[in-house]
Amino acid sequence: MNLAASLSESNGSSVALIDMSLPFGQIPIFLNTESSFNWGEVLSNISRVDETFLMGVLSKHRSGVYVMPSPTSLEDVSLETPEMIEKLLSLMRDRFDFILVDGGQRLDDVSLRILQMSDTVLWLPF
Questions:
Q1: If we measure between CA atoms, which residue out of 103, 98, 88, 105 comes closest to residue 37?
Q2: Closest C-alpha among 90, 88, 12 to residue 43
Q3: Model confidence at 13: pLDDT above 80
Q4: What's the pTM?
């Protein structure tokens, strides 16, 4: 989150932060925010997603960073495919200067697609 906030505040860049850490990411807890939608719900409507829809489901943190949390139910996760994630990230690239993805610790086809689409990858050991 600190990197996302710094990017947003330092030069007025538009920044999105996606919590892909499963199960149950922690970004909303760290940010003390609540969101009505998560990326699992967005993927279930991926054919309808355009910029207007996307901006309606993202939560804006007081730092200026737009946040998309992980699903709160594992049922929403079963829908994801690498192609769906690619479509979502492609739409977000058209809207945001920076997209930061917390990929968690999993390594599967979806996380590999995210890595393939990434311009820069930071690995932070915990």
A1: 88
A2: 88
A3: yes
A4: 0.84
